[in-house]
Amino acid sequence: MEKVVDLRSALELLKNVPGQLIETNEPVDPHAELSGVYRYIGAGGTVKRPTKIGPAMVFNRVKGHDDARVLIGLLASRERVALMLNTKPDRLGFLLNEAVKNPIDPIVVSNDHVKAQEIVHYADDPGFDIRKLIPAPTNTEEDAGPYVTMGMCYASDPETGESDITIHRLCLQSKDEMSMYFVPGARHLGVFREKAEKAGKPLPLSISIGVDPAIEIAACFEPPTTPLGFNELSIAGAIRNQAVELASCLTINEKAIANAEYVIEGELIPGKRVREDQNTNTGKAMPEFPGYTGPAIAELPVIKVKAVTHRTNPIMQTVIGPSEEHVNMAGIPTEASILQMVERAMPGRLLNVYAHPSGGGKYMAVLQFKKSQPSDEGRQRQAALLAFSAFSELKHIMIVDEDVDPFDSNDVMWALNTRYQGDVDTVFLPGVRCHPLDPSQDPAYNPALKDKGISCKTIFDCTVPYHLKDKFKRAEFKEVDPRRFAPELFE
After folding, report:
1. Which residue in 90, 93, 420, 488 has the fewest CB atoms around it within 10 Å?
2. What gap in Å lies between CA 282 and CA 297, rounded to an integer?
3. Which value, to the nearest 10 degrees, does the dihedral of the CA atoms of residues 346, 352, 353, 357 take?
């Protein structure tokens, strides 16, 4: 099997697996058209129907960007993510959980042969314009501008020097400025920025685009699993059993991923803000993971770009906001966080977790729980409460028994229909902080809500009461080897 160390080796791996990667030489406009095409090919997730889960796609001819290609949908299939991380789809949460427990810190390499710096464009070069250098698409025709949606933002705490990596909504605003959206209270880089701004100093920041998919998944862990000061690059190192290589930036005092396709070097400017849709005045930002277009923010922090470096014939990587790609990036770390929290409290009872696509990987989780003795009754709900603690942005949890496949929505719905009574199996937790991008979490929708982002979290307990388990046994079928009768289906 091809060893994956960067984006290009990941693509080489996928080329050898039927149905996982396609390319097109048809010219495509990065403004809305590229995402419009992929909506039908393989976006999935909460994207407006019709859509489906399909292959990753490379556009080789992008209008206005002769020397670049654009990749979309790399992580938009759980099967594909498992393939690139060398595990099985239903074991991804366990893989990441083990990686969190056994981190391998990144290392800094010499700048002599850094792939990400093969070609260098400085901001003071004549004609420098990030909009011409970076083929960042828009998801729709209403977007506030071209967005970098798969940029690994790397910065360091100005007081402690501890570094962290996260993914943010980054809009190209002018030839050398980008806006940066921070979900309130949810990102470590937000703490770094606030500290630097309080001191009146810029915060150096690198944005690495087109990297090893293990880094993209690891970057999506959140507290309490990875507290402030925990560098998620160490999780990617553990997944690969090899330290992530960083290189010193050329214009700022920060590091970047050495084998990235693109690196944007810049600084978050203290006190400077910009209206996100200043160039379009649509009032819209871009489609977000719940499936709706997010509103443009009136005042966002500004990154002043100092340089753009990239590999020869670089590959720009992008994502459709509500796609299955977001589901996997956000959801698989969520699964790992829940597995870790519950296993610590009640070992051996939580068999698996699935962050369901309908919640964008954030809002909904299915917990597969095993009751082995009478005293386990009620613990399934305790596990759900722990899951809410492990991942604060969860809104709905469905709990199913060990004979229900949490990854099969039809099976989960079967449990809801035959092992659930709304008046006795529903637990409401009103007035709890969740996620501001859910449009139903708004006082205009529910006047009882005190603030936007406050939700009623709900547990749907679709497990059979322990004393009735014998009454709810599924029909047993004879065990046979189907390969004898239909070998072509199992090749």
Report:
1. 488
2. 11
3. -170
Residue count (the chain): 491
Using CA atoms, how far apart are residues 457 and 397, in angstroms rounded to an integer? 8
Query: Which structure tokens are listed for 242?
Result: 């090899």
DSSP string, 124-183: TSTT--HHHHS---BSSTT-SS-EE-SEEEEEE-TTT--EEEEE-EEEE-SSSEEEEE--
Cis peptide before 50 (omega within 30 of 0): yes
User: Residue 289 is which amino acid?
Assistant: F
280 Cβ contact list (under 8 Å, min separation 6): 142, 143, 144, 145
pLDDT in tens, 390-407: 888 999 999 999 999 999
Q: Can you tell me the distance from the alpha carbon of 463 to that of 466, in angstroms, rounded to the nearest whole number?
A: 9
> How crowded is residue 478: how many other Cβ atoms within 10 Å of its Cβ?
4
d(CA 146, CA 138) in angstroms, rounded, equals 5
| 49: phi then psi, degrees, rounded to nearest 5 | -75, 150
Q: In the 8-state DSSP scheme, what is residue 378?
A: T
Pairing of β 147-148 and β 315-318 = unpaired
Q: Cite the DSSP H helix spans in 397-449.
A: 409-418
CA 446, distance to chain mean position in Å, is 29
Q: What is the pLDDT, as a whole number, of residue 436? A: 81
Query: CA–CA separation, 119 vs 117, rounded Å?
Result: 5
pLDDT one-digit tens code per residue, 79-115? 999 999 999 999 999 999 999 999 999 999 999 989 9
Phi, psi dihedrals of residue 454, rounded to the nearest 5°: -90, 135
Q: Which helix (H) or strand (E) holds 94?
A: helix 92-101
Active site residues: 288
Contact (CB, 8 A) for 393 and 362: yes
